[in-house]
Amino acid sequence: MPPVKILLLTAAVGIVGANSLALSPISGAVAESFAGADAPTVMQAAAVFGLGTAGSALFLAPQVDRIGADRALFRAFYIMLAALALSAAAPALWLLTLAQGIAGIAAGIALPAAYALAAQIAPPGQQNKTIGTVLTGWTLSLVAGVTLAALIADMIHWRAVYVTMVALSGLILLALLRAGLPNHIRAGTPTTPLTALQVPGITRALLVAAAFMLAFYGFYSFLGAHMKDVLGASVAQTGLIPLSYGIGFGLAVLLDGWIDRRGAHRMSLPIFSAIALVYLLMSQAVDHLSAFIALAFIWGVVQHLGLTLIVSRMVALDPDQRGAILGLNSSITYICVFAGAIGFRPVFEAYGYAACAVLAAVSVSIAVLDALVLRTARSAA
Q1: CATH of domain 4-380
Q2: DSSP state at residue 61
Q3: H-only helix segments in 60-201
Q4: How does the protein associate with the membrane (predicted)?
Q5: Side-chain half-sphere of 43: how many Cα atoms within 13 Å?
Q6: pLDDT tens-digit profile of 53-66?
Q7: Is 302 strand, coil or helix?
Q8: From CA 238, how far away is CA 353, in angstroms rounded?
């Protein structure tokens, strides 16, 4: 069983992830509370969340290196609590959107801090396994977060979803404060986004992260709208897709040690190729609920492995600038939340959800190409 500190970091990632992902499957229910709103309009709050996270990760995440990842994580959770409370109480859609922007600011600090702490805690030779375990927080956000959010919205009200997240965030914060997390503060010149951008290898690593995340968020953003408006599915039925994905994502932690043993340079090409293939297969399955649920499980498995490769690559570039580097990674990630929600919308409205899956596969092909170039260069050396 993983140490308590790792489990708490996993829970921290889980609650941040739950907020970032919960809006899509409940967007139809949220829209019913605000006059003139529809599900795609509500999803603009997710886009604002992405912008808030991107800006925060870019300019505030270097605080992880300056004050220590533990203190940065605590402060992020105080902000998250306020944002979730405002989301639960928002009487107008613009206030919900504002609250999600504030939550994005918290997420832009919390995720780099949690990943940096995971790297600090990891035993020698088990970095991929430890980071992969913390990344299963995204499983919590999907299985125990998004899926329960869909059920709570169906059975009680969408506002109850945010009330629940307020309570859970408070409990996680109290546990983190008592956990005795390591406090590693970088000596010397303070880190900034500019210093992080000078680290060798960072540009290509960020490009791969952008391709990977744009594909995911562009496709995921319109899950709720497709299920409700095209398939006529209930909120609870919609929740089966993230449930299946989350189970696959979580079980894939058993394969993270395989990456440590085989080496990331060997595993990147088959893993990113598998992700692109799954998107192409889903383009044929999105109108068939049973097939879509089954493929979502495989999607979760390969996405977990891909995300582990990306985060491990980032933390290995320069241990003294992990906060700034992971801030850039989170910034790119949540620019993709915004770009996915905005950029995929015309494709979704004009050509349907299957076209979004094809576009996601095209985006991931950039990561496939990078992996191929790295493997070729390593073989030549």
Answers
A1: 1.20.1250.20
A2: T
A3: 63-67, 69-89, 93-121, 127-135, 137-139, 147-155, 158-178, 193-197
A4: Multi-pass membrane protein
A5: 28
A6: 888 888 888 878 78
A7: helix
A8: 14
